[in-house]
Amino acid sequence: MPGRSPPLPPDGTALLAHTLAMLEEVPVGLLLLDAGLQPLWCNAEAARACAVWNHGERKAAALRARSAFRVPAPLLEACRGLRAAAPGRALHPLVVSDHALGLHARVRLHTPGAGQPPAFHVHLDYRRPRGDRHRPLSPGAIALLARLTGREREVAMRVREGLRTTEIAAELRRSPLTIKTQLAAIFAKLGVRGRTRVAALLNR
Predict the structure, then answer these.
(1) DSSP string spanning 109-166?
(2) Which of 24-33, 102-111, 131-140, 157-166 is predicted with the least confidence, judged by mean pLDDT?
(3) Domain layout of the chain by residue ranges
(4) 0.85 cut: is pTM over it?
(5) Which residue did the predictor score with more confidence, 29 or 71?
(6) What is the CATH topology of the domain spanning 131-204?
């Protein structure tokens, strides 16, 4: 019936599995660290962003991000700062950026209460430093990007900044024909006719 909450699985195991699968597809990096700064979970986008932060874009492209995963030193430093600032007290998130690499992270210390241990919630945003990339993506833009594959998102983000097909191909080390094929898929999935509309939707 309308207005009623959907039933939850008896033990929550299935719910957790489905939630983690959904979070894998989110076009924003999500990283969870325990109070001792040990990684508990991350999605594929976070693993990729951390690889770029640790190794640079060119070397990271040749790595398997998950197998080479390591929390970047600037994020660990931010977490230590939050932990030392006010134990047991809610704090505003810290924003850590490396503008040269186009990396941005929002680090929050979350204390659930009721005897539960605190944890660090980290949102990672990896975009090459061009145009207005320092401006965060809106919730609407994130929802649109979620319709695309990871490779299509890479192309769409560069369209957002006004790059031409040849520039996108050079940055991503793909052929211009491949980029044109991926652009056609992006237009179809977003229901638009051209790259100008893609850029407008992702910049709003």
Answers:
(1) EE--BTTBPPEEEEEEEE--S-TTTTSPPPHHHHHHHTTS-HHHHHHHHHHHTT--HH
(2) 131-140
(3) 26-126, 131-204
(4) no
(5) 71
(6) Arc Repressor Mutant, subunit A (1.10.10)
